[in-house]
Design goal:
Radius of gyration: 24 Å
Largest sheet: 5 strands, mixed
Order of helices and strands: HHEEEEEEEE
Distance between the termini: 30 Å
Number of helices: 2
Strand order of the largest sheet: 3-2-1-4-7
Structural class: alpha+beta
Strand content: 15-25%
Oligomer: single chain
Shape: elongated
Length: 188
């Protein structure tokens, strides 16, 4: 499934992220809609004001009070567990992944393949094979971002970070820096 105005998906993970994001939007709408409807109804009902009996009523509907707190909590908990599973699945590269070293510097990406081949600002990898990127920055914070794969990882000076992906179809996909890193950031 592809969503209009979104980059094409190039991995099964990208599809999972898209579905998660759609669920988040639906959850936000489902939790916001009753509030907006009640706000509109109360605005219309009490727009002119009138004398109202403001004495405290002794009756309470505990089931209603518990349900309007418990249902949103459980829905957001489902979202949290789902998102955490996706995150933790992404944090462990599978065994046998092709390992590529990445060096970020203003304003370029340097990739080195296991056989010694080097690339600058382009990365050529086989489709349907897990790729593990071990990344470090030479100068400032950068962020390697593949929109079609729906993955992004900050690349820090003096600290190695890991990112892995599995592009499930051949193609040409954008590779960007998603962290402002200086005057030529937009060209990186």
């Amino acid at each position: 499934m592809s969503f209009p105005l979104w980059p094409a998906t190039a991995s099964s993970y990208a599809h999972q992220v898209d579905v998660l994001l759609l669920f988040l939007w639906l959850l936000a709408a489902a939790l916001s809609l009753p509030v907006v409807v009640a706000l509109g109804a109360f605005t219309l009902r009490y727009r002119r004001g009138r004398e109202v009996d403001r004495t405290h009523r002794p009756d309470r509907n505990v089931a209603l009070e518990v349900s309007w707190a418990l249902i949103p909590f459980l829905l957001t908990l489902v979202f949290f567990v789902w998102a955490a599973k996706l995150y933790f699945d992404r944090s462990r590269p599978p065994p046998g992944a092709l390992e590529i070293s990445v060096l970020a510097r203003q304003w370029m990406w340097k990739f080195q393949h296991p056989g010694g081949q080097r690339e600058i600002d382009e990365l050529h990898v086989p489709a349907n094979r897990p790729i593990k990127l071990t990344m470090i920055s030479e100068d400032v914070i950068h962020s390697l971002f593949f929109p079609a794969l729906r993955i992004k990882q900050d690349v820090l000076p003096a600290r190695y970070t890991i990112l892995w992906f599995d592009a499930d179809r051949p193609g040409v996909y954008k590779l960007l820096c998603a962290e402002f890193c200086g005057t030529s950031h937009s060209e990186m």
